[in-house]
Amino acid sequence: MSIAVEARPNRGLHVALWVIQALLAALFLFAGGMKLAMPADKLAAMPLPVAFVRFIGVAEVAGALGLVLPAATRVRPILTPLAAVGLTIIMVGGVGVSIMQGMAATAWIPTLCGVLTGLVAWGRVAKARIQPRG
Predict the structure, then answer these.
(1) Range 70-91 burial, b when 16+ CB lie within 10 A, else e
(2) Residue 98 backbone phi and psi in degrees, to 5
(3) pTM for the model
(4) 30: Cβ–Cβ under 8 A, 6 or more apart, which residues?
(5) Residue 103 to residues 8, 20, 72, 96, 131, Cα–Cα distance (Å)
(6) For residues 103 and 81, what is the distance between their CA atoms, to the nearest angstrom?
(7) For the chain, which terminus, N or C, has the lower number of CB atoms within 10 Å?
(8) Which tens digits make up the pLDDT trace of 78-92?
(9) Directed axis angle between helix 50-73 and helix 11-37, to 10°?
(10) What are the angstrom distances between the C-alpha of 97 and each of 43, 48, 106, 120, 126?
(11) How far apart are CA 99 and CA 24, in angstroms?
(12) What is the mean pLDDT of residues 99-122?
């Protein structure tokens, strides 16, 4: 008879994920906030409809909050990897838009962000899960 012992996550991985989460949250809060605050005439220059760009801005701000708040408060921390997955999907779209605009050289930015959000999602589910309060 063996008793399964849950391994504690590596402290370094836990800290690294928190640093990545905080940096990504700041980035997405800024990027989403700019999409929401920018005048519609400036957004019209983008290859996407203004309403869709505003929707992406809302999703980025919500995702930024979701990367940090559920894990920090330990209230429904499973929402943190879900927010990361949502932001990963947005970044896949960002890579596609960059390539469609003929700016493949700058597609590395959303690619890197997508890889990092994917890393947070994987890390918070498989390697360094945050336990809910209580």
Answers:
(1) bbeeeeebebbbbbbbbbbebb
(2) -60, -45
(3) 0.90
(4) none
(5) 43, 26, 37, 10, 42
(6) 30
(7) N
(8) 999 999 999 999 999
(9) 150
(10) 14, 9, 11, 23, 31
(11) 22
(12) 96
